[in-house]
Design a protein that fits this description.
This protein is of the alpha+beta class. It has 12 helices and 15 strands. Strands 1-9-7-6-2-4-5-10 form an 8-stranded mixed β-sheet, with helices on both faces. The protein has a 3-stranded antiparallel β-sheet with strand order 11-15-14.
Length: about 250
Amino acid sequence: MAKFLNTKKSVSEIEDLIRDAGQTLILISPYLKLSKDFKELLSYRNSKDKITTVIFGKVQLNPDEMKFLESLQFVILKYKDDLHAKCYLNDEKMIITSLNLYDFSMNNNKEMGVLIEKANTNDKELFEEAYKEVDYINTTSERFSYKTQIITQSVPIKEEKSKKPEIVTSLKTNFNGKFLSATALSKELGISAKDLTYKIEKLKWIEKKNEEWVLTSFGKSKGAEMKKGQYGEYIAYPETIIKELI
């Protein structure tokens, strides 16, 4: 059956939950300020190409915290403005607690929580019911990019201008030059491929369908095309698009 956790045990069990996670790891915490140990755990998981979803609820988070999370290629950062729940889970375990992933809270506050284990017959139904709520929170949260948010807020006029029909026609009609993959384009811009994807998605050049990124009609009007490569189809962007993205 579910186990009671005090503050110390909550921290220890969350560390174990992250360390032992397989393909699924979802961390839900309105406030984030990770300790050195938790950063090392997430960095280690990232080095193994395992995806971690972090959902938070306070946009006034420390920029350094955001930059660290965005530096991890396999961390998906999401935001939900009405989030107050604190829940951490992998494929086998779930911790529901009052504890944020916040260094000060872990060291100074009195917290409580419960550990639910899927393998335990008495916990299985509870685990599955709670997982449905986690899935709902995950699905209804917005993808977040600290860099993209700054760019979007700083140059709204430029982005709006890019939607004018005469600019779209010019780019599509006149381009006969070099195309770049998303990876090559991100290197030209000096940002990660993940940051580039966030930015292009915000500009509505691409959208996700059936877990695959596809071009929108607006993206096609920018000159982007679907091309065939060694590992299947991929989106290719005209090199002239670099100036607009900068």
